[in-house]
Write a structure and sequence with these properties.
With 118 residues, the protein is an alpha/beta fold. It has a single domain, classed as Rossmann fold. The chain has helices spanning 23-32, 51-61, 75-88, 102-111, and strands at 3-7, 18-20, 35-40, 67-70, 94-96. Strands 2-1-3-4-5 form a five-stranded parallel β-sheet. Helix 2 (51-61) links the parallel strand 3 and strand 4 (67-70). The two termini are 25 Å apart. 30% of the residues are buried. The mean pLDDT is 96.
Length: 118
Amino acid sequence: MKMDVYLDDARPCPPGFVLARNVEECLLLLRDYDIGILSLDYDLGWHEPTGMDVVRGIIASGQYPEQIYLHTSSDIGRRQMYEALYQSKPAHVSLTAGPVPYELLVEIARTQGKPPIK
């Protein structure tokens, strides 16, 4: 079974996802597990590495999840991450410059026996 990962330092983690609060945690999960969905924030705290550092790590390692969503509120960060991933991702990797759709969040929670999203 694939793991779904949500990188964010402030927002609550959706049910059915594993939370990574920083770049190091996220890169370790990407290295050690088979990731289905990865949802990335850009800004992860003052003077902290950003979601772009995760993107660089993905590109350098070649370890891409099946689907990547960019849920960040930073327009500049979203654009930078999207452009870097779009140019380097394998054809089978899905890339979306926005958050995981609500219907998919509900389905993930349901299949993992988690309470539904409100």
